[in-house]
Amino acid sequence: MILIITNKEDITADYVVLELQKRNIEYIRINTEDFPTKSFSSVIFNKNTELIFNTPNKKINLSKIKSVWYRRPIKPNIDSSIKNEAVREFCLNEARDFLRGLWYSLDCFWVSDMEAIRKAEHKIYQLKIAKELGLNIPKTIISNNPEKVERFYHNCNGEMIIKPLFVGFIDDEKPKAIYTSQVNLMDLQEKDSIKYIPSIFQKKINKKFDIRVTIIGEKVFAAEIHVNRNNKEKVIDWRKLKIEQLDHFEHDLPINLKNKLIKLVKKLGLEFGAIDLAVTEEGEYIFFEINPNGQWAWLEETMDWPLSKEIVDLLIRGDNK
Fold it and tell me: Which end of the chain has a smaller Cβ tally under 10 Å, C or N?
């Protein structure tokens, strides 16, 4: 049986669920925000260990699970009747720790291991591994030292970008996504904003086009991403645009680069990776980052690639190990 650990709003998970249903493969989907208000779970230590989970729709003994797709779970939802903030925090921590302990207890194949995902999300670590594997990365400084950042800016002849280290999102009353953006000299005068927020600063790459590489097991899918001619805005980060503002084309990666990217995914302990590259005007491939749980459903639609099928095939292969 296959377990999907995710959340209700994840459309990408819906694609895999449809593929599982189409093939009559037994699965259970756990939306972690349902716990503990709508879902119930018990771990029973008797002669045998029982890991029981009741979703709103199904009861299952998790000991039967052979493969897990760990797909963007979110924090448990604490009932609104609990008003005291300290008590709410305690309940949240207990619920979160219960789920983690439950997942750690599953002796099965993971896409991907949750600790490997957490570690791989750290850009300092992934850039270090990418460089060790011989991938080209932009000239980079990761710092909260205003003087060093300004010196780096001048070394880049003023062609420098900034990007967040971990979470590109501010969850406020009005949630705001943070994309890669160019830095100007006036920005560097805001020294406190540099000092209080360590960030990634890189030499801006003059790109011919971007590439999104999706790796599932050892299957590699690469798509060129071009900002279409109808979009007059000068764009550094294509992710801020709508799909209709982008043109996609299949790209044949050099075999040496393809092998390095597969090695990167494996070195990070992952079974899946969404990798952002760029090709310069000179034809050089530049590695930007890897998202160990990145989006791919739009590529299945745009490129007509069988990505959900490949995810399910991978989970089945793991089931048979």
Answer: C
Count of domains for the chain: 3
Cα gap 54→27, rounded to integer Å: 13
Residue 18 included in any domain: yes
pTM for the model stands at 0.92
Gap between the terminal Cα atoms of the chain: 13
Q: Do 215 and 191 fall within a single domain?
A: no
Are both 210 and 182 inside the same structural domain?
no
Element at 68 (helix H, strand E) = strand 67-70
> What is the DSSP pairing of strand 160-163 with strand 272-280?
unpaired
Tell the burial category of 283 from Cβ atoms under 10 Å away from its Cβ (0-12, 13-18, 19+). exposed
- The pLDDT tens digits for 66-80 are 999 999 999 999 999
**Which residue(s) pair with 223 in the sheet?**
212, 250
* Residue range of the domain that includes 247: 206-292
What is the largest distance, in Å, between two alpha-carbon atoms of the chain? Answer: 69
